[in-house]
Amino acid sequence: MSSDNKKPLSRVKTAVVVSRKMDKTAVVAIERLVKHPLYHKLIRKRSTFKIHDEKNETKKGDIVLVAETRPISADKHWRLVKIVKKAVEVEEAKL
Predict the structure, then answer these.
(1) In which domain, by residue range, is 77 found?
(2) Is residue 66 in a domain?
(3) Rg for the chain (alpha carbons), in Å?
(4) pLDDT tens digits for 26-72?
(5) Number of independent structural domains in the chain
(6) Separation CA 70–CA 53 (nearest Å)
(7) Alpha-carbon 80 to chain mean position
(8) Is residue 81 assigned to a domain?
(9) Does the pLDDT value for residue 3 go beyond 60?
């Protein structure tokens, strides 16, 4: 055993905020490309996670960095590390 017993880094992923309807919680989506085993076509797979956002600073469309953490609730096991890119706000045109 080595003298540095450092804790291994937790898993960190980049995701997009898809929902912001709860207090201190955001739903994020992570997309990945997977090759079909028979047809060898690339298929987009999407996973959604609930993340802990203590200060309610994310908005829908933000690109965020999330890290795995201890369970915060029954289905929240990820926390917000930082906001990589803010979403562009677009006003809806009234007809």
Answers:
(1) 22-85
(2) yes
(3) 17
(4) 999 999 999 999 999 999 999 999 999 999 999 999 999 999 999 99
(5) 1
(6) 14
(7) 8
(8) yes
(9) no
